Every structure is written in C-alpha cells, then in structure tokens.
C-alpha cells in the first residue's frame, strides 16, 4: 500500500511527534522513509544576497536530517534524507510528486484562531493541496 513515505521535518517538537508515527508506518509496510528539511529561503529577504544565511539554514537542515535518518536506520527502517531550498509547502509537495511518495506524515503545532491565520500553517497547506494522503500529528502540549 505504501512504498514511499515522506516526513518533512524542521527539527521542531511537532516534527519530532510525527517522527515516531512515520517510522511505525514505514516499518509496518516495509516502505522507504524520505526525510526532508526545507531551508525556507522565502523567510529571509537577504537570502539571495547573503550565501552565509543559506549555508547556515542548510547546515542546520543537514544536522536535523542526518540525525533522523540515523535513528530511523537504527530502528531497522530504510531512510534517505535530503535538504532543499525553497518555500516550505511548495517544496514538500514538489518532492512528494517527483519521488512518487504515497503518504506524507507531518507534525502540526495545533495553532488556532487568529494565531493560525497570522502565522499560517505549512501543514494545513499541504493537507489542502497534496495529491496523496497526509497524516498529521499534533505536538504534545
């Protein structure tokens, strides 16, 4: 049913909450876990001029991805990791499409009301626009 599962991560508590679910589903189906960190270059207006900012985001992403992949592999799950630049939800959707992902497992911060409207939600955008099922896991409060 699921051969390829995507876990977008930013190293947050919400992403960590989704991790255990992603590993369990991946293991159950004998799938491959794709761990994706998006160095969100849309958040920084200086990014196109300052390679140091992009390099820093990518270094942070590589650390997060490497840790998640190593842990998943130690639990017997085949995992691959990648760090990409771009807008978060657009890059997640693009990666899922280009890599024939069957399921996306994502954390959510559980914001509500005005806070959600002002901050926006990458997870919500992925849920609304993905062509594949999306499992969301709320971070513990």
Provide structural commentary.
This protein has 141 residues and is an alpha/beta fold. It has a single domain (4-138), classed as Rossmann fold, CATH 3.40.50. 48% of the residues lie in helices and 24% in strands. The protein has helices at residues 13-29, 51-74, 88-98, 113-119, 122-129, and strands at 4-8, 32-40, 78-86, 103-108, 134-138. The protein has a five-stranded parallel β-sheet, sandwiched between helices. Strand 1 (4-8), helix 1 (13-29) and strand 2 (32-40) form a beta-alpha-beta unit. Helix 3 packs parallel to helix 5 (122-129). The protein is globular. The N and C termini lie far apart (32 Å).
Question: What is the strand and helix layout of this fold?
Answer:
Blueprint: E1 4-8, H1 13-29, E2 32-40, H2 51-74, E3 78-86, H3 88-98, E4 103-108, H4 113-119, H5 122-129, E5 134-138
Helix pairs in contact: 3-5
